[in-house]
Design goal:
391 residues; mainly alpha; two-stranded antiparallel sheet; 8% strand; disordered C terminus
Length: 391
């Protein structure tokens, strides 16, 4: 698995989270100034320099549970508070939207364009804030430095790592079901058609080589419709990305594929399938998933220090928000039953005395302007309890 996968997961999921929050906050008629403050606070915590530098260092991908925990804390970095149900559905939507985009990339390099589309959209909420605009530009340059010189095989390794992270996630989302791009089972429909970026060839040709020279070509029929394009998209700080995946599909006309005879036949065959359980009287039992306490505690402790979420937000300044009471694009999780047994796991971390001053320094550096500081929060030896007390 590639050690350069984590930044792309984090930035793209973060971008999707911002899209959903913007849509729901606007639908509930919050003042534009307050919405901008919420989203800007999240962007500031998400892309702060120290965290981004740590994020882009080569490292394995975090486990799904730990990644969800990070975004739960990140979502609460502003004056907004989400209940557990809304946070779970929010994360499901984030993951499935990014999975859809990843599966439709024309080539591995398109993953970078999708990431840039997410970062480009963040400028909308950072207009007038040079500090936040600088964070976005720095992050784009970091992406270019990290991935810009990778050859196709290394980018493909990154793509495979992303797919591995998402491969067991099959959550039905009504926005995808309605547009006939997702099956009732939660799997996406991938049609044999689309753009082929040069210098790649359209499927349908077998080339034979000898001593490095082409000797013959064999042509065969393919059922799909393909076209060659020279527009590979720009990785400049401000440029044309050439693809629509990664843009805000809740605010613009969606570029999802509509129903075709092929998708209709796939949907019909899916409905006719009979799922036979492994045993006649099988009973679904929630799985008990072991927790690697030591490793998880170490990773969450590091993330807590770097993100510095929830600093200085007073209880009087916060408000609670239920996102999906009337949201038609709500995600329906097929694995909630399996999640019940370990959603409330507790990892206790007792930091060494010498680390307390470092933690307090990090907290002061990441304090969000114009809000009350977190100095009034009670002391705690447990890092996670401390974060909960701040929030």
């Amino acid at each position: 698995m590639s050690l350069l996968t984590l930044p792309l997961i984090f930035i793209n999921l973060g971008g999707e989270m911002l899209y959903i929050l913007d849509q729901r906050l606007s639908a509930q008629h919050l003042k534009e100034q307050r919405i901008q403050r919420i989203l800007r606070d999240i962007i500031g915590q998400m892309l702060n320099d120290k965290f981004v530098n740590e994020l882009f260092s080569p490292q394995p991908v975090y486990k799904k549970r730990e990644m969800k925990y990070v975004f739960e804390k990140l979502a609460h970095a502003s004056i907004m508070k989400l209940n557990a149900s809304s946070m779970s559905k929010l994360y499901d939507l984030m993951v499935m939207a990014f999975k859809y985009q990843l599966l439709h990339c024309r080539e591995p390099r398109d993953i970078l364009l999708v990431t840039y589309n997410h970062l480009d959209a963040m400028y909308t909420w950072c207009i007038g804030s040079k500090e936040h605009e600088q964070l976005l530009e720095t992050t784009k340059l970091k992406i270019l430095q990290t991935y810009g010189n990778l050859n196709t095989s290394k980018l493909q390794a990154v793509r495979l790592s992303l797919l591995t992270f998402l491969q067991d996630v099959h959550i039905r989302v009504s926005i995808f079901l309605r547009d006939h791009v997702q099956l009732p089972s939660g799997r996406f429909i991938l049609l044999p058609e689309g753009e082929i970026v040069q210098p790649y060839d359209i499927p349908g040709v077998i080339k034979s080589y000898k001593n490095g020279s082409e000797t013959s070509r064999t042509f065969f029929h393919t059922p799909g419709k393909y076209s060659i394009t020279k527009d590979i998209g720009s990785l400049a700080v401000r440029g044309d990305r050439a693809i629509t995946y990664g843009v805000n599909m809740y605010a613009t006309a969606r570029a999802l594929k509509t129903e075709t005879p092929l998708t209709r036949s796939i949907l019909v065959s899916e409905e006719k399938c009979t799922i036979i359980p492994p045993y006649k009287d099988a009973v679904v039992t929630p799985a008990v998933i072991p927790v690697e306490v030591g490793q998880a505690a170490k990773e969450l402790n590091a993330l807590a220090r770097l993100i510095g979420v929830g600093n200085g937000v007073s209880e009087a300044d916060t408000f609670r928000l239920t996102l999906f009471d009337d949201f038609e694009d709500e995600a329906f999780s097929t694995h909630n039953l399996l999640m019940e047994n370990y959603n409330d796991f507790d990892i206790r971390i007792v930091p060494k005395q010498k680390d307390e001053s470092h933690l307090n320094q990090i907290k002061r550096e990441f304090t969000i302007p114009d809000v009350v500081t977190a100095d009034s929060c009670k002391d705690s030896e447990d890092m996670l309890q401390l974060m909960d007390a701040i929030l």
